[in-house]
Every structure is written in structure tokens, then in C-alpha cells.
Amino acid sequence: MEDVKPQLLKVTIDGIEVEVEPGTTILQAARKIGPEVAPPAMCYYQPLKGSGGKCRACLVRVAAGSAKDPRPMPKLVASCLTAVQDGMIVENTTSPQVIDARNGVVEFLLLNHPLDCPVCDQAGECDLQNFSFDHGKATTRYEEDRRTFEKNDLGPYIQLHMTRCILCYRCVYTADQITNKRVHGVLGRGDAAEIGTYIEKAIDNDFSGNVIDVCPVGALTDKTYRFKNRVWFTKPVDAHRDCPTCSGNVTLWYRGDEVIRVTARKNEWNEVTEFICNTCRFEKKKTSDWTIEGPTKISRSSVISANKYRADTIKPSFGQRLAAAEYKEIHEERDTSQLKIQQLPPERFAKLPSAMEPEP
Amino acid sequence: MATKILTEHINVPGIETFDVYRKQGGYTAVEKALKTMTPDEIVEEVKKAGVRGRGGAGFPMGMKWSFLAKPEGVPRYLVCNADESEPGTFKDHYLMKNLPHLLIEGMIVSSFALGANKSFIYVRGELMYVIRILEKAIAEAEAKGFLGKNILGTGYDLELVVQPGGGAYICGEETALLESLEGKRGNPRNKPPFPAVKGLYQCPTVVNNVESIATTSWIVNNGGDAYAAIGIGRSTGTKLISASGHINKPGVYEIELGVPVEDFIYADEWCGGIRTGHKFKALVAGGSSVPILPANLALTLANGEKRLMSYESLSDGGFATGTMLGSGGFIVFDETSCIVRNTWNFSRFYHHESCGQCSPCREGTGWMEKVLHRIEYGHGHQQDIDLLVDVAKKIEGNTICPLGDAAAWPVASAIRHFRDEFQWHIDNPSEATQPGAVYRGEMALV
């Protein structure tokens, strides 16, 4: 049989053209270009079938449907579910309409999500934290009571903080797809909906710990790691072991010489591709249990790399560019595209002292 | 007397039984369709009739049918959406209760046209007695050979299943209905794929409203052209309107599309006018999810012509000066109604019924409800009105299913047309919270 190459489709996202295979979604195409234009995703999780479309964080504007039919789509579309067409033009961070919608989504998500980052174990690794930094506002217009929940005991390994849940359904899909004993799901409706086990039952199976990894916020956390450390003080190291139930490829999180947490390996989009078993995650916490591969590669813009700067640091993320663009009003000369600090022209210096003079 | 297609024989005693219905000319469409017509011919007649979906969206029914994928060896399904539950809409309930055989006849004809051998009627769980009526009627039809194996000796088989829903408004959305029918949580699916390609059990499915399906037997008997001759423009045929509120004669009326709104409200044949001694203040023309209109815009178009009961005329002027025909839930308000309280009430419903799957709807509907509650109870702030407009704008169009839009439109339109009244609540909290207090400022009352 002849090896026929599928015809590649050309998509333009934020003015950058990329060629992708048919069947690719806008989000995947954008991720191919890089984090600069990749829409945020709170509920979409590539390894989980059926995920996506719920959080509405990845909404984009399709300015031209395809080369054949260049009409714009009437509504914003969820980029994680919309397949690309040849000649499609997508506006992500370049469309004010999209920025406005994302602003709304952040505000909605934060209505009932407490900003308890200082005590939350997910701080520093939280998708919602990043998303609100990029697209949110410093204040809220919400004055009403926030929802609270009775504590729900899920067993010895997993802590459920329902107040922090943003109902992304990722853990439900995980339980559905990688374990054979699904015991939890979504109960209730609307903003009274909650993740629960119906009648307080422990989530109990070999792979249950993976719901911790897929949770984008701090709703599901590791009971064996709680309050042990802040993630930016730890040192992640790739390691593996010969495990009979899972691949055994993990990340060990060190504090000094001690392994304080074991997680599955995440890719640059914070997604686990190889799920690990509970034995690896909760029980093997000695260095001698593992074959060490070397330090985990951490994105230079991640808070985990804080205090560990190198010369080739941070690429400007969207949030910084947005902040820079707003800052431009005060500082016209600032070149936001390169993010280089320019020397102020001398005449600007001349103005400064007079403004700082005490009033007579 | 206006033409009646659906409710012609509704007052005949015993019409809910097979024999009486048959005597009134019932089930002739089944005989005609199965014995003399091909499925494609029926679809063609429905297309010619130009009948638009009566569940609210108004999508041409024949076109929906023609979108149905027909892969080899895969069953196709027809699902009747009888999960009617929007505030102000009660026509399907009325139709099923009084004329169960009309729906069953329509189901047989439509299923034959679509090539479905198993069809479902998804009825709202609260209507248990209607479910019993339908089941009894199905048993009668089956006993007479109009349902089951080899109908009337034509070799066509059809099994009709009545499925009670759990009583969630969201299950009236077609994809949530299919999820619910499959035994799952009633969350809407992301589209595409549309049900016509992958619907019930991943098979091609058509979901139609009760009223839409009930019209098919008349279309088969009398032809699509005869149906298209009734009505006005692209709004063909008749429509059941469930009229409620401050009118003298609330009830379900079958009208030819194109009747002026003014006639519908004031004629004795229909609503019989506004409650005696009161004035017409506002109108919700198509169920609680459509934008509310003040009296003057409800009766006339922006250019001064009379507004008609049709899809086009009601939506004339877009959302600035128009509304939608929707499902035909016609709610009339006189000057004693408080628009803020009413908006809060609608909002309370959508907050309660949001499925909670996507974030703008889950969080936004609750937020709007709480702000409206605050305004109604005299704790509103000046910025709350703009806040509501902004929240509604951020929900609208950004959700998976139209429930987000349905929750946002009533709030946005109430503020658009009755901003003064909201302002009055904020400025005069002590007066506005008095029992029965209503804004009596400058307003176009008719």
C-alpha cells in the first residue's frame, strides 16, 4: 500500500501560521505554536476522553471559518473542541471580545473559589492561579455569600476541599476512564453541584491518587503531603522504578534529602500522560526505592523555578504583555514586544525631581 | 372561525379513547402514509409545509429531517420532546392530556418517514397522569394494529416507549434529553456532532417537539401545500399559544400565525382583553426565556405597523425592540405587576435549573438571582443595574447550551425596557419593599 501523507491544513492563530493534520483542534494547533498563543484550559485534559468544553476558558473568536467559507463564526467557540479547517483564522489574545469573555470566565470561576492560595497546597501549581493572573482583574464585584460545604471524608489518601472545586469534571473522567471502580461523580445541579461519593465513601482503588494530579485547583490534594511544604521550595527530580501495576515513571519532590511527595510526570501543559498507581504515589517515599534520572525540567516562567534563576530566563507570558500594554499609557517609550528595559531619555529624568518636590 | 388543525376535535367527548378518535377521522394519516407513500415523499411534504419547530427555536422541521444521517446497518431514532417546563408554557401538556392519539398518530407517521423502528416520548416526570394517559393510548393503538410488529400488514414495525423524565428543565434541551434518555446525568452535549449524526446511543436521531410531531398527520392527510397556505410568510400553519397572566381568558389557543398581537389579546375569541379596569404594561411573548417587551412595543413594530403573532414579526427589530415567538408561552402583565420582582422570579428559576456544567451559566445565573433579590428587597446599589447588564452579557453566547442565553435575555431585556423601575427600587427602598408596591412612573401603558 502506498503511504499517503494526509494533507496538512493551514491555520492562522493570532497572526501566526501553522500547519496541522486534519482533525486537530484549535487548542492543539495553538499549543503547537507555543505557550504565547495557547488558550488557557481549565477542564480540557488531553489524555481524558470527553473532557473539555465546560469551563469556557479557552473560548476563541474564529474570524474566518475556512478558505472555502471565510465567514466568521457568529459566537465565540471552545477551542478545545473545534476542529481546524484549512485557511481558518483564529483570534485568541488579539481579540478584545475574547479577552472580555475570559475576563468574565475568571470572574465567574472566582465567585465561589476562595482565594486561599497562602494556605492551599496547590499554590504555585494551580491552573486557576495562572489563568487569573493572565486574564483576571484585581477586584471582584461579588458581594454575596460564597458557597460552603460540609467536609467530606474520602479516605486516607485524598483530601477533598469542595469549596475550591470549579467543577471541571476532570476527576470524574479520570475515575471513569482509568479505574474500573468508579465511586464518585457530580451530585446536585447548578451552583449547588458538588463532587461527592453519594454516601461518604472512600475513593478506594489502585489508581485513585491520579484524581489529585488532574485537579486544576486545590480541591483534591494529597493527604500525605498536606502542609509539608510550599512547592517552590522543593526540588523536583525525575525517577522511575520497576512497578508491576503502572509505568513507574514519576517525579519525586525533595525537601533536602527527603522525598515529601511523589507525582506523575506532567508535560509542559500540566497534563499527565502516564498515570501512576497508588503504591508508587503514596508508599514509595525513600530515595532507595527509585532509580534517579535527573532534575525535572521546569518552565522558566514557573514559580517552581523561583530563586533558581538562570541567564536565559522568562519569556513574556500573555499576562505580562497585557500588563505592559496597560503600563504603556504612563510610559510611552517602553517597547512591549521585546520587554527590554530601555534607558529613559534625559528629558524624562529632568521632570522627575520637580514632581517629587514637597508642596510648599 | 379560524382554521384549527390540532384542536379541531378537542371538545368531542371521549376523544382520548381510540374508537372516538378513529371515528373523528383519526389514524387515516397512518393508513395513507404507510400504504401509499414512501418515507421520502412524507419528508418532502413536511418540507413543502414549511412547518417550523414548535419547541421554541423555530428551526424548519423538514430541513431537520433531511439532515438525518442514514448509515447502513445503524438504527435511527425519533424522540419526542415532551419535557415542557418553561414558566408560562403549557401547550404540550394540554395537547397530550386531551388528544393522546393525535401525538401517537404523528409519532407513527414521523417514525415511518425517518425510518425509525423504535421511538421515544420523553415526558416530564411531574406529569405522571399524562404518562398514564399516553401509555393507555399506546396500548389501545397496539391492540388495533397501528403499533407494534407489521403495522396494518405493511411490514413496518414500530415500538413506542414513553419515558418519564426526572423533572429537570435542562432535560428539555435536546442533547441533555438524549443523555437523560441514555440513563446519564442530564448535561447538554457539546455540538457538533449534532443529534442528526450522533444522537441517542450514538445513532442518528431526530428530536422534535410534541406540537411539531402532532402536525405531521394533518400534513400527510392534506398535503404540505395546504399547510403552507395557512399562516403568513415563512411562519406557516397554526400554533398553540398558552396564554396566561392578567387576561380575562387564560388558556391554550390555536391560532393561525399572523394574527395581530393586539387582536390576540383583546378579541373575545382568544384572551378576551386585559383584566377589567387595568392597563396593559408588558408582554413576554414566547415563554419566560424570551425578552420582555413593554406594551407599546408589544403591539406595534418600531415603524408603527401592527405586530403580528409570527416568528418574523415578533423578532422584528432584533433584541432592541423585538422578542421571539419561542414556544408560545404568552404572559401578559398589567400595571399591577412589578417587573423587578418578576425578573427576579424568572432568574430564580434559571438559577435553580442550571445544570452546572459550564462556568458562566453555573455561577452567573446564581449571581444575577442574588443581585436581583437584593434590589427587590431594597438593598440594591446604584452600580447593580450595570452589573446585571454586564453579567448577562458575559453569560450570553458563551455557554454550551442555550440555557445561558435563556437566563440572560429576560434580565437584560427587563433592564433595557424598564430601567426606570429598577432605578426606583434602588432610590426608594423603603417604598419599594412595601407589600404590593409597584412603580407608577412614566411608562407606556396601553
From TrEMBL, chain A:
Ranges where the 2Fe-2S ferredoxin-type domain occurs: 7-96
Chain residue ranges for the region called Disordered: 333-360
Superkingdom of this protein's organism: Bacteria
Keywords annotated in UniProt: 4Fe-4S, Iron, Iron-sulfur, Metal-binding
Signal peptide: none
Domain 4Fe-4S His(Cys)3-ligated-type positions: 97-136
CDD domains cross-referenced by the UniProt entry: fer2 (cd00207)
Coiled coil regions, renumbered to chain: none
PROSITE patterns named among the record's database cross-references: 2FE2S_FER_2, 4FE4S_HC3
Cofactor field: [4Fe-4S] cluster; [2Fe-2S] cluster
Name of the protein this chain belongs to: 2Fe-2S iron-sulfur cluster-binding protein
UniProtKB/TrEMBL annotation, chain B:
Keywords associated with the record: 4Fe-4S, Flavoprotein, FMN, Iron, Iron-sulfur, Metal-binding, NAD, Oxidoreductase, Quinone, Translocase
Pfam families on file: Complex1_51K, NADH_4Fe-4S
Gene behind the chain: nuoF
PROSITE patterns assigned to the protein according to its UniProt record, in alphabetical order: COMPLEX1_51K_2
Protein name: NADH-quinone oxidoreductase subunit F
GO molecular function: oxidoreductase activity
Record family assignment: Belongs to the complex I 51 kDa subunit family.
Role noted for this protein: NDH-1 shuttles electrons from NADH, via FMN and iron-sulfur (Fe-S) centers, to quinones in the respiratory chain.
Cofactor: [4Fe-4S] cluster; FMN
Metal-binding in keyword set: yes
Entry annotated with the keyword Translocase: yes
EC number: 7.1.1.-
UniProt cross-references to Gene3D superfamilies, sorted A to Z: 3.10.20.600, 6.10.250.1450, NADH-ubiquinone oxidoreductase 51kDa subunit, NADH-ubiquinone oxidoreductase 51kDa subunit, iron-sulphur binding domain
InterPro entries, A to Z: NADH-UbQ_OxRdtase_51kDa_CS (IPR001949), NADH-UbQ_OxRdtase_suF (IPR011537), Nuo51_FMN-bd (IPR011538), Nuo51_FMN-bd_sf (IPR037225), Nuop51_4Fe4S-bd (IPR019575), Nuop51_4Fe4S-bd_sf (IPR037207)
Catalytic reactions of this protein: a quinone + NADH + 5 H(+)(in) = a quinol + NAD(+) + 4 H(+)(out)
Residue ranges annotated for the NADH-ubiquinone oxidoreductase 51kDa subunit iron-sulphur binding domain, each copy included: 340-385
